[in-house]
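For the sake of transparency, this paper describes our internal protein records without simplification. An entry from our holdings is shown next, in its original layout:
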Amino acid sequence: MGSSVSHAAAPPPPPSPPPAYGAYGAPPPFAAADPAAPPKPHEDAEKEAAEEKVDYLNLPCPVPYEEIQREAFMALKPELFEGMRFDFTKMLSPYFALSHSVSMGNMELPSQGSEVVKIPTSNYEFGANFLDPKMMLIGRVAHDGRVSARVKCDIMENLALKINSQLTNEPHYSQGMFTLDYKGKDFRSQVQLGNNAFYGGNYIQSVTKNLSLGTEAFWVGQQRKSGVGFAARYDTKKMVATGQIATTGLVALSYVQKVSEKVSLASDFTYNQMTKDVSASFGYDYILRQCRLRGKLDSNGIVSALLEERLTPGVNFLISAEIDHWNKNYKFGFGMTVGE
């Protein structure tokens, strides 16, 4: 009997009391879950690489070749004028409108010296516009007999015909241009035919999501001139950079920094090997709630600005100014635009 007791197995130890979780007697929410491990550096790099991977089968369509510097032109090439200008547009229907334009100012004449010779001049233009989702017709007739017309017709979904013409009483100053514009999924191409036996064409292709490359060629039969050019454009949400070079000796560079949705800074550089001319300019484009201010300063010492103030819907007030200190040439103008 005593041996059986001595060799019996020891009783199991009492169960340990449950951990104390305060007065609630239950674990707080998410207490039993282990904290998530921080992501590893190589995982972040792989994720960024996957996002930056280029889908060459789904690239965006680039801008037209002739508009490759359009952001820089908006800030650096405002439509300046001297004197007074008044533009009135009357909508007769949702597709048809008539316009009247009156301007009075000075016309500069070439002179041998550095002094600028100006004579007063005035101009009146009557215009008619027809705007349709698939067709655009714009015509202008000036009091001196000049007639200009622009036509844009969508032949197919991706093919458009453009016609630009200008007729004058002066010999050899009338011009005409026919353009076929084809818009592909990730490329654009154009074929041009104009007076003076002008033949041209261009092509621009998206290489990546932000980079597009293009080329152009032209031939002018009467002047026996030809040229080939190349262009590149890199654009993001914050900046646009372009570069162009041609066999005619022209080199053009531009850069636009989008500071915000309403402020843009632009600069450009142009070099002409044939004439040895070099120019550079810096400009800005500031869009306020009721107005838009654009201006620039170039390497020739010319300072210019254009203010467009919206007084009421459909009525805009314009102020234009340009100062050339070196040549003592000062231009100032104001105008008003009525109608949309």
Q: What stands out?
A: The chain has three helices and 19 strands. Residues 1-36 have pLDDT under 50 and may be disordered. The radius of gyration is 34 Å. The longest helix spans residues 41-52.
